[in-house]
Write a structure and sequence with these properties.
Distance between the termini: 56 Å
Radius of gyration: 21 Å
Largest sheet: 8 strands, antiparallel
Strand content: 25-35%
Mean pLDDT: 88
Number of strands: 14
Structural class: alpha+beta
Helix content: 10-25%
Shape: elongated
CATH architecture of the largest domain: 3-Layer(aba) Sandwich
Number of helices: 7
Length: about 260
Amino acid sequence: MIQHITLTTDYGLSDAYVAALKGQLLRQHPAAQLVDISHNISKYNLQQAAYVLKNAYHFFPDGSLHLLDVSNFNLDPAEYMLFAFDGHFFVMPDNGLASLLTQNANLRTYLVPANGRTALHSFSMLNDVLPALQPFLTGASLEEVYGPANEHYHMLMPFLPAISGNNLNGVVLHIDGYENLITNIDRAYFNNFMKGSGAFTIHLKRKINHENRVNQLVNSYEEVAPGNIACFFGHNNLLQIAIRGGNAASLLGLRMGDPIFIEKS
């Protein structure tokens, strides 16, 4: 029986969608412990949704169920999928989210019955998916409810860093609530890129004819003076860009998807 259920959506908190979803879950499974991960995912931003859930789910007990509902410009197939990964269960639209979350690991997926649904809409999760999950929530096995697993699901390629000559090219993957910038450049990739070279320059976006450049990494914000840029690898081993005491995204003029590149010398 599922005990912990997390919710990650782009519903926002100004409408009834989140409350209705929780209410239906509690009607079906009163003993469930519901935890909000985020309901402020940018509309249609699958990369952000996968990033947020990827950095949260593994802190929950094994066997937790994670509901992720973010659509892809209303072009989604009218299907939701359920799959097991890394000791957890996930339910989400079959629109590429699974591949972004798992880096295209070999998944065994189960199709959640559509119940006549022909397109995704705001209440698909509420009206169609949750009733179809009821036997699984209360203890039935995936095979008992949904039949044999398959390996067919929609795949998207995640944003990956790339090396071009002496440059390591990446992008801003996420902007957190403090406007710190998280890139898609991880520590291992950076270290491999820097083999045989000790000097580098991190180039940030040009703004008002000025290019911000950083040529060192630090371990924390406290190692730079207030107002200065701090570049470091965070707890998830991704390169982060922050300004001590300031909002890096606004002050540097950077948004999700903007390029970041590192030049070695």
